[in-house]
Design a protein that fits this description.
The protein is α+β, with helices and mostly antiparallel strands and 934 residues long. The chain has 35 helices and 28 strands. The chain starts with a helix and ends with a helix.
Length: 934
């Protein structure tokens, strides 16, 4: 078959080609290869046909595009138009271009654009991280010889050789295996190392149960194997994940959508308002074109909340910094606010709810059962029976056997890890260390584990002796290697297999006959362990007089020592964290790659209801309607693959839920990308998961999620506060300008009708109020503490906007009260002094005072005192100081205002008192109106 024909043979979605269901001979036939491998010429041709064995890298992000995107907004367009109009005024007869207004507007836009660019720029490294995970080299058979090639040169049909410690370079079908185990936790979520064999499997076996397949980006833990490559690059399982991530669109948060919609509405409103005012001026007042233009520019500046994007971004940034202090690193700022609306958490098991480290949790020997405390590789656990600490001496022979019959080893103190090797064997070393068992030995011979034998035997030298005394000594004291005076055979494996090779059992320090009754009791203990989803191993030993005897003779007549049961235990504090989330109205669901019994067992310990657990196969076979119904009841999903997680997530989102998805493996990346909030693990998480997520838990602690959600709720409250604050101010300013010009033309025609440049407030004054006076206090609102009891309330509905009906009514009423009291002050000042500048200055000072006091009126609804936020106190003080600087320094010429005498401040104070009274009255009326509606 030619290279093109070979390409056709695997072109139809290699990930779904069911290689695991075919015999090795059939697989070789399908990829047009053989046990002799490929020739160098054929490999080169296939490399041209299939391309390099690597994960396709996403297109690089254009910095220019990101920067220009900051200005694609209706509000920005309006302000640019206002700046151009300020300059265009100079083209009218007898008028001068307003360079100051135009320069200020453009400078503000540029500053906002730069800030948004810095915050939004984030390199999309998900696909790149997948690519970097690839194995750098691989050992393959080319031209009949073993050669080492770069992993990118591996092609379908290559015969590859794997040994413990190797990274798997591509997806391959195992054709020969000698004790091979692989760590697939990052791909499948399976916490235990997976034993591999060459036997065909059922065609519908899920990914985590395909024991005759090895996958790109997993690693061989121990043993050896020969495999034939069936898929490379983007055709691998990891490549499929990369493809899903490419297809996943960046999720826009509800708040982002609302801010965009708000900006559009404000934009249309401004344009409509300008058109209305222009029509009124031209039709009713015979205003000049210059007057119409100036009022239009002023209205645009008054209506557009220039500081809103910057304040929103900075508030989110402040919130994300507080979250970092609590070990939650936010990678996408808008997600900070989204956390407050999360009502469902879909969490992975391995490494998130559990330690991702196999741990011996139960042991049985001589008819007694013991619980083993401690998790992971910490050796400070103890052995307990019920509530009391038990003496571990009866367990020592079994623990020594587990430590000697073991290929794992302790890492040097200088390493980042404690142990190297298969997680199961590491767990046995740790359990022995907890009992202080000295497992030093000199290995004489190994009869390796295979999937057919399901057991491993190690012959170790030491002071054993011969006969029954030798058995007891060997079993009790082990092989120290002190003088090589004896050899002990240590066996571990599946309990049934180990028992089949035993004729005695250790009981009370003596090897006694393994009767049918004793055998039945041991098997019952094994079933009890397995019923709790423990992975169970049996242990046996005997003294050996001839280490060179055949395997069958070495493994005959063993003394059964006991059982050890292990699992990946829950992380400390996780059950409490899950309970806390539920008390806060947040549903928690587990989705794991582990088998259903293991998932149920862990689920029970953590606090899930495992009844009705669904498997990935059941998720895949369900219709959309069936799955949407099932996800509302099911709390445990087992044997799920990446596409299953995405389906579960999609069903929850279709039901209206705001979903946070947690995970740490490569297999979690597509779901993390599609979730409303993707949360990855910072310690155990893969680079792929972290880059695909919105938030990284630096301590891998599920409890941190609850703290992050509390912060998110507090941030939402703060956003609502300053949106209320800014928009109520802008509403008041718009009404003041709009109504003021119309009334001024009627009440003071000699000022407004005959002087087209006459305005209630100039654009420069409004820019100062919007960006400086409003900016500092609004920003300080972002540092407000969370309200007491914030987690006692259920999550807000996903469709609840920041600007709800009550808030919109409040903004409107504030605008009206500001207009009534502010214009009363303005026209009184104009009437009493005849000075437009004095009247403008009075109104200018009044608006500043009203708006800073308005902050505390808003905060009072959240039971927050002014002293609870020192930053806000400082911001208000700075605002008032800057206002005095503008009024009483030469800057007043730039702003077109004058220094106010003391009696003028009395007028401002009177207007302010009137504002407070009317505001209190309107607020109570609104409260009653909305209470009646509810």
């Amino acid at each position: 078959m030619t290279a093109d024909a070979a390409t056709e043979a695997v072109a139809d979605d290699p990930r779904g080609s069911e290689w695991h269901g075919d015999s090795a001979e059939r697989v070789f036939e399908r990829v047009d290869s053989s046990t002799a491998g490929l020739s160098g010429e054929e490999a080169a041709a296939r490399l041209d046909a299939h391309g390099p064995n690597e994960i396709r890298q996403s297109e690089s992000i254009s910095l220019v595009e990101i920067f220009l995107a900051q200005f694609r907004d209706v509000l920005v367009y309006i302000l640019v138009l206002a700046a151009l109009l300020s300059l265009g005024v100079g083209l009218l007869p007898g008028a001068e271009a307003n360079y100051t207004d135009a320069a200020l507007i453009l400078l503000i836009l540029l500053a906002n654009g730069v800030f948004g660019f810095v915050q939004d720029y984030r390199a999309e490294k998900s696909i790149e991280a997948l690519r970097e995970l690839s194995s750098p080299v691989a050992t393959v058979l080319r031209d009949g010889e073993k050669v080492t090639v770069d992993s990118t040169a591996v092609v379908p049909g290559d015969v590859v050789f794997l040994e413990g410690g190797d990274a798997v370079p591509a997806d391959a079908r195992v054709v020969e295996a000698a004790g091979l185990k692989t760590d697939e936790s990052a791909l499948t979520g399976e916490s235990a190392a997976v034993e591999k064999s060459a036997e065909p499997l059922d065609a519908d076996a899920p990914l985590a149960e395909r024991s005759n397949m090895v996958y790109m980006n997993t690693s061989a833990v121990e043993g050896q194997a020969t495999a034939v490559v069936v898929a490379t690059g983007m055709d691998t399982e990891v490549g499929g994940i990369a493809t899903q991530m490419e297809a996943a669109e960046e999720q826009e948060t509800s708040f982002q959508a609302e801010v965009d919609h708000l900006g559009t509405r404000i934009g249309y409103g401004v344009v409509g308002l300008i058109a209305l005012v222009a029509a009124v001026q031209l039709l009713l007042t015979a205003a000049s074109p210059l007057s119409v233009l100036l009022v239009g520019v002023t209205l645009a500046v008054a209506a557009v909340p220039e500081g809103l994007p910057a304040v929103v971004t900075l508030t989110l940034a402040l919130g994300s910094r507080r979250m970092v202090e609590k070990n939650a690193l936010v990678r996408r700022l808008p997600v900070v606010e989204s956390l407050g609306a999360v009502d469902t958490i879909v969490t992975d098991k391995t490494g998130t709810l559990t330690e991702n480290r196999m741990t011996v949790v139960r042991a049985a020997a001589a008819g007694e059962t013991y619980d083993v405390t401690g998790t992971g590789t910490e050796t400070d656990g103890e052995f307990r029976q019920g509530e009391r600490t038990a003496d571990a001496v009866p367990l020592e022979p079994m623990l020594r056997c587990g430590a000697v019959c073991n290929n794992a080893e302790r890492a040097p103190d200088s390493q980042d890890v404690d142990y190297y090797g298969d997680p199961t064997e590491v767990a046995l070393l740790v359990s022995a260390a907890k009992a202080g068992v000295d497992a030093a030995h000199r290995r004489v011979r190994v009869i390796p584990f295979t999937s057919e034998r399901r057991r491993m035997t190690v012959l170790a030298a030491g002071e054993g002796g011969d006969g029954e005394e030798g058995v007891r000594n060997a079993v009790r004291d082990g092989a120290t290697g002190a003088d090589g005076g004896g050899v002990t055979a240590y066996m571990k494996g599946a309990p049934e297999q180990v028992l089949d090779h035993c004729d005695r059992v250790l009981d009370g320090g003596e090897a006694v006959e393994l009767t049918d009754e004793r055998r039945a009791a041991i098997l019952e203990s094994n079933r009890a362990f397995a019923g709790d989803a423990l992975r169970v191993l049996g242990f046996a030993a005997r003294a050996v007089t001839d280490p060179d005897a055949p395997d069958e003779e070495i493994e005959r007549g063993m003394v059964f020592l006991g059982l050890q049961g292990m699992l990946d235990p829950p992380r400390e504090g996780v059950p409490e964290a899950v309970a806390d989330c539920r008390e806060a109205g947040i549903r928690v669901v587990m989705a794991t790659g582990d088998n259903v019994e293991t998932a149920k067992a862990i689920g029970r310990e953590v606090g899930f209801d495992p009844e009705g657990a669904l498997t990935g196969r059941e998720v895949a076979s369900s219709s959309e309607a069936e799955l949407r119904e099932a996800v509302e009841e099911t709390e445990v999903f087992a044997r799920v693959e990446p596409e299953h997680k995405v389906r579960v997530l999609s069903a929850l989102q279709s039901n209206g839920h705001n979903v946070a998805m947690t995970g740490d493996g490569v297999n979690d990346a597509p779901a993390l990308r599609n979730a409303d909030v993707g949360i990855s693990m910072g310690i155990r998480g893969t680079d792929v998961a972290q880059q695909a997520s919105d938030m990284v838990l630096r301590d891998d602690n599920f409890a941190t999620i609850r703290d992050a959600i509390a912060e998110g709720r507090g941030i939402f409250d703060n956003i609502r506060k300053f949106v209320n604050y800014l928009l109520s101010a802008n509403a008041g300013e718009v009404l003041v300008v709009f109504v003021g010009v119309l009334l001024g033309t009627v009440l003071f025609p000699e000022v407004f009708a005959e002087r087209p440049e006459a305005l209630v407030l100039t654009p420069v004054m409004l820019l100062w109020i919007n960006l400086v006076t409003d900016g500092f206090p609004a920003l300080a609102l972002g540092a407000d503490p969370k309200a007491e009891g914030i987690m006692d309330e259920p999550p807000r509905p996903t469709d609840e906007p920041v600007l709800d009906g009550r808030l919109m009514a409040s903004i409107g009423s504030i605008g009206l009260v500001m207009t009534v009291t502010g214009l009363a002050l303005f026209f009184f000042g104009l009437q009493s002094t005849g000075s437009l500048v004095r009247a403008q200055t009075l109104l200018f000072a009044f608006l500043v005072v009203v708006e800073v006091v308005r902050i505390q009126v808003i905060r009072a609804r959240y039971d927050l005192s002014l002293a609870s936020n020192p930053w806000l106190v400082g911001a208000i003080a700075l605002t008032l100081l800057l206002q005095l600087v503008v009024l009483y320094t030469p800057l007043n010429d730039l702003f077109g205002v004058e220094a106010l005498p003391l009696d003028a401040w009395g007028l401002v104070g009177a207007a302010f008192v009137a504002f407070l009274a009317l505001n209190l009255l309107s607020s109570r009326l609104l409260d009653r109106a909305f209470a009646a509606r509810e």
